[in-house]
Structure formats: C-alpha cells, structure tokens
C-alpha cells in the first residue's frame, strides 16, 4: 500500500508521482535542482516546466529516478542539463523513453553519452529508410557500405570478428533502437498511440540491417582458404512480414549453394565442405545477433530443429514438395530474402512460392497449399491446439495467443490468404495489415469487419510493444500487478479523470470480444473448405477452361452457365470482386444440386435484383450457412427461386435456423392485421398482407427443403399463415362493404375452413376451402344481412385473386350446401334448415374438416355446435350410409384420376395415397366419433392415433396408414417445390424425380431408384391397410 504523501509534496502527488517524497529528494538541491523544498514548489518557472514534462511520462517516478542516475553518470552534467532546459523536443523524447523503458534507461546510464542521439539536430524525426539502416550498421562493423553484399564466404566483410566489433554493433543497434522508441513515444500524441505499423516496419528493417552486419562479421571470421559458398538468409515470421516487435526472435531459413555467384560448381565435386562452411557462417551469424540484440531462430526450416541448419535449393524444393505439412506452407506466407546472397534468396522464393500459392502454367501445375486434402481443417485444428495449451488463468491475460488475441487475427487473415490467394495475387503479402487491406479491397472481408480487425490489431500490437518496451523482454501477457497495469494504461493514453486501469481493461475487453467474434466468423467460414477444393485454374475462371469445368460439373448448358458467370463477375466493381471470390466454390455446390443450370440462373436473377444492395453479397460471403444452402435450394426448387426473385430480402432468413422456425399464430395474425391496417386502399392493404404471406411461404419452404420441419409442421405453418391472410382480408372486405353501404354492416360473419385448410394440413398448392356463414344483427332483416354478407364474401375473393407478385391463395367455396349451385353465403339458420332437411352422408364427411378460421368467434363456435351431431352421429352410420360412402369412393377412384395418370405414383388419388388414407380415417370418425372423443379432430394423423388407441385399427395398420399419408403428403409438397407448379404425379425417372428425392431428404449419393422403390412399397402397404379398414 502506498503511504500518504507528506503535506509539502502533495503537489507532486497530484501530478502523478506515486512516491512524491522520494521524487522531492531527487528533484531537490542535492539532486536535479528543480524543486524548492522550503517552498514545497518547483524552483521557478523553468523548474515547473521541467517537472510538468516529467509528469507526462508513462511512469514519472521511473523517469525522475533514471534521469537522476543518468545525470550522476555524466562526466560533465552541465551539457545534459543545458539540453534538457533548452531543447523541448529532446526533453520530451528523453523523458518519454525514461518513463516507458527501464531497460533503455539502464542502457543510457551505462553509456552516458548515448543521450546525444536524441538531441535536436542529431535526431531525425522521420522514419529511416532500410538502406540508411544498413549503412549505419555496416559502418559500425567497419564493412564497406558501397561494395555490395556479403554473399556468403565472400563479398563484403567486417573489419574483424573479435568481441570489440560485436560490442560496437550492439551499441549502434541500441542507438538505432533508442531513436525508434523515442519516435514511437513522441508521435503517440495524447491518445498514447503511434503508427504501430510504421514502428513494426522500422524494427524489421533494423533487424534486417543487423543480420546483414552480423553476417559480415561472421564472414570476417572465416579462414582465408574456406570453400566458396553462397548463403541466402530468408526472413520468416514477423521479420519476414516487416511487422517485428521490440523484442522478438528473428525467424530465418538458410539456403546455400557451393561456389561463388555466377560460377558453375564442378560436376562430381563434393559439396560437403562448402555446406559446412555455410553452416559455420550461419551459426556464427546467429550467435552474434544473440549477443547484439535477440535470438535468431531457424526452427521453421525443413524438419525443424532435427533438420540440417543449411540446405541447398534443391533440397529445400524436394522437402516442400514431398514432406512439408500445411502449417509449414502457412509460415512461408511471410518469407522474403533479407540478407546474404539475395539472388539465391530470390531463386529460393521462385521455387517455393508456387508450392504455397499454386500455379496454372508450366508442365507441372499445382493447386497450392490450401488445395491439399484437409488443409483448412488442419489449420483450424492447429489454432485450437494453441488455445487449448494455454492454462485458463494465462489465457485471460494473453494478448497474443489467447482468444481474441493477435493470433486470432493472424490465423484468420492467413487462412483467407492461402485459400483465396491462389487465384488473386494481390493477397500474397507477408504483412498482416497489408494483407487485410487487400482482403478488404478484394471483397473477401467486409469493410466494417476489416476496419474493426485493423483497429484491434493495431491496438493489440501497441499493447504488446509497450509491454516489451518496459524491460526489453519478450512478453505478451498483461501484468497482474495494479501498478504495472496503471503504467501500461498510461503509456496507452489512459490518463486524467477516471481509473486508468479500468479504462484500459474495458478497451482491451472490447477489442478482444470483437476480434474473437470476427475470428469465428471468418476463420470458420464453411465456404473456405469449398473454395480450397477448387483448382487454381478453375479459381481464375478463364473462359477457355471455365466452360470445360462447367460441363464437367454437370451443367447441361455449359455455355449458358458461362454467360451467367461472366455477367456476374465482369468489371472492376466491388460486387464483381466478391462474386469472383464466391462463384468458384459455389459452382461446385450448384453442381451437387439436382438442376445446376436452373440454380445458377436463379442465383443470377437474385443477384441482379440485389447486386447493388450492400448486405446481399456480404451475407452470402460472411454467413456460411447462406453460401452453403443457397445453391442447393435454388438448384432444387423452382418454387423457391420464383419466391426469391419477388422477395430477395427473404434470403436473410437462411443465416439463422431460429429465423426458419414457424412463427406463432398470434404473431402472424398481428403482423398481417397491422400490415393491412397501414393502408387505406383496400387492394394495397391486402397486397401488403399477401406479401407477408409470401415471406412466410419462403420461410416454410426453406425449412422444409433443409429438413428442419416435418410434413405436419409444414402443413400447420402453411395453414396458420392462410388463416391470418383470411382474417386480414375479411376485415378489409368488411370495411369496403361498410363504406359502400355508408353505414355499419347489418350482420356478423364467420369463415369456416374446410378441407386441408380446416384440417391444418395445407400444402404449397392448396386453395383455401371455405364456407361463409352470417347472422343478422338484432333488428336487421335476413335479406339485407344476406346481401351484405354476399358482398363481403365476393369482395374478399376479389381482393385475394387480384394480380400480385406472390403465389395466389385461391378461395374455393364448393363444399358449401348445394355446391356451386347453392348460395355463396348462408345465415346460421339457413345452414341449420338445410342440414336438417337435405344433407347427405358425403356432406357430413366434408364437415369433419370444418373449423372456424376468421370472423366472429361466437358465430363460428355456434356453427360448430350445429354440425357436430351431423359429423359425429350419435348412433354412428347405418349400413346404407356406409355403402353410399364406399360407392362414392369407388367412383372417385375411377372418374377423378386424370387420364394417363399412374395410379401407383399419384400422390392424391393413387393406391395408398392421400385420398385413400383420408377416406378411411373419415369413415372411422363418422362411425365412432360420437363414442371416441379423440376422433373429434379435423386432423388426419391425430384421428388415426385416436383410432388405434380405441382399438378401431391395429398398430400395424395404423403405422402403415400414417407412413403412406406422410410419404404422399411429403412428395406432393416436394413436387410443388421442385416444379414450381401444382402436381400430384410422381415421375418415375429424370431430373424431377431426383429433385423430389432430394427435396424430401434423400442423401445426395443415394440412387433415385431406391427412393422410388421406397415410395411404391410404402403406398402398397398403405393400400393394404385401407382395404382392411375401409372395407371391413
């Protein structure tokens, strides 16, 4: 716990000095002379300015203590004192370094004159060029700066290899590092942030210059008769990517060739001595670098630490072609020659780069590292292993390896590079930020996502730099000590009001969350695996080869498909860029669909409708489920394709399975009523409601085709939305007629659902079977009420049949008494009279599906009370009625089956089809509904379960009837989805049969013949059960 400051030093405490009493001593007359202890104040205006400058350091206490030590180390303190007082720029740079880095402070105290490197005039504020840094460090070891490179055993050499030369190199390296740190801190500004990319590049250039100087020193230590050998040093990792940290291993790979540059190595001569010289040279360079600055790590070489330190170009090529693993190719993204024989280094790059990125030219074509089997999964698994290896307590503080850390960004970027860089050379940068910018510009990463990653990467790298700078030690873990966290927060600009530690912690947590979210979004894109399987040649989609690929993929009209592809990808727009990234993989997904040509055409149509909409291609690119699902859906279902062309925004439903779940009746009714009420024009009101129905049809079709909903759920969803449309349309129709009559309506009215609507078993092609019932209000005449009710019913039919860009909801009232010959609407009393006097068994049967769906609820309930005794007769059916129903059924089987239809595969009227099962169930309901409450339902499957439970059918017959009904209903729905138009006839072969099989969930590798056999077998068993139950 920090002890309270003495009263006289309270001002120092307020300025941020944690140990104000010690600071007062260091600043007082016996120290720096800037503090007047008698006045408990700075010693004049100059002292105040100097103390305020110290207070701006990240750690003011460290800065003042180290400045005191540095002053004491001077032979002539007056020079330093004068510079501090008169050179404000120098003062800020020096104090910034002293407050941020204890290690550099120690270095300045050990070398008391090195502070002069920061004095204005000597100090250079701009970033030094790589050439200038090379000159400075080569000059430090006495190597000529204008005589080329140290190409190995020859070329430029240092003045010697003794420890004094290495010490000089270390001192000059530290001087350059000091300037970099001062530039970093002085350019940070009030937010504590400099251009971390610029600083990282400068550090990499400094490392490269150091390696070159160290190689010159190592070459100077070779014996005069050493065999001639060329040695190339390949920078890897952050050095190769020009994004180095303050303290980091410099990763390298060595390549060597016997002989001097331009000279042929004699055939048959043993290269061993030359390679041993190269190994000595490389080892010496690594040792010198470690003494000067940091460790040089060659562990990324072939076979790692178990392999030879130095290999020939041919040996490298052989290893990478035959033995290298995917992570090794990932590491090669950052490779670049940095020292030694640069021509040899470039030759190495020319040999190795095609193995990383692939090539479509030459005799040997390769698909690149990402095209290797399981490459994407291997990279993902490696990232997971790194995370899992971290102890939980450490992971929470890890800014590099933990979740939401730098590795999340780097792995995501590198995976996207490996996959997409095969076809796009602009992505092949070894620098993370440059690669990320190229991915954004090329449309592979969304702008907002990319900018967020860029911002978080810069933040995390700045944090890493500040942590390492403090003691010049390699670290990437946040400290646990609160004082150290306060120092870190201060270096990042968290000063002033509020707790700096809490401010920094909140910022770090925000970046970590965002990085993790985007990492999971980009790194685990399912589309990446699909793109990785596409050859390099196919990625480029050159017309001469693209058409052949389309034909090989199974497109019936490859030239037409190519035209679609070209229309989608031509030009330099961002939209075309994204399409070029998406289509190579999506074409393979289209090819797996039953009708690739139709799917690609539909995709083009949807793209044309939405191409200028920012979210569309972003959704397809970034949401893996959408990219996976869309080709399958469009290549399977003309119904979906047609819906999407009219409602392309519905595509967003595919991104989340939760959005594909059916919406509740309450939500649907509320949404459609609200949509209709927002408009005054009746036609517009109903069109708005119908548009919402179109979205629900799309939602249901998506879920159906993706296997998320069973046939009963589909039927219920289609029924619920139809109910909601009828409710909304009835309210609009009633309003129209009331306005026409210029007064309130004289009746209450209800719509009774019949058939599949009443049974909640609608298909995509079902009309709404209905009956209209009304009841005159008190004081109104029957005639006037009937006229008004008929006007409402006719207006409702008109509104729902008006042209609109959505599938129609036909209104069929033919099941009303007397059919088409009878009145469209009746009063409740009229229905009662008719059913009492004239109804027949087949009408009772039709009433089994009746339920109120819209209008006056009380009237609907009383209508059901009226018909229940008819459809569930207390004494059941007599023999004559049963005979009549069977006779009608036999006539229907013969007369209503279309000419030429195959009764074995007709889903509605075929043997074992929907009609067979439904007539069987309905006969059971008519016979036993009065005595078996469970039979009093409008739903076929529920009634069958009740019949089984009551012992009216055996379990075997029950299962056969359920299976037949569900299979026929599924296939009938699938026929509509595949063809885009109503059909009851299952084809026995061809593309449509394949589409139907896929639509109901048959695996892609299964034969359609197996599906057809299963259908026929199920229908046959269903028919046998019908004969046992219906004709019993």
Please provide a written account of the structure.
This is Bifunctional [glutamine synthetase] adenylyltransferase/[glutamine synthetase]-adenylyl-L-tyrosine phosphorylase. With 1032 residues, the protein is mainly alpha-helical. The protein folds into five domains: 7-118, no CATH class; 146-157 and 188-262 and 269-357, Beta Polymerase, domain 2 (2-Layer Sandwich); 375-527, Nucleotidyltransferases  domain 2 (Four Helix Bundle (Hemerythrin (Met), subunit A), Up-down Bundle); 675-871, 2-Layer Sandwich (Beta Polymerase, domain 2); 876-1029, Four Helix Bundle (Hemerythrin (Met), subunit A), CATH 1.20.120. The strands form three sheets. Strands 3, 4, 5, 6 and 7 form a five-stranded mixed β-sheet that branches. α32 packs antiparallel against α33 (682-705). It is elongated, with a radius of gyration of 41 Å. Residues 1-7 have low confidence and may be disordered.
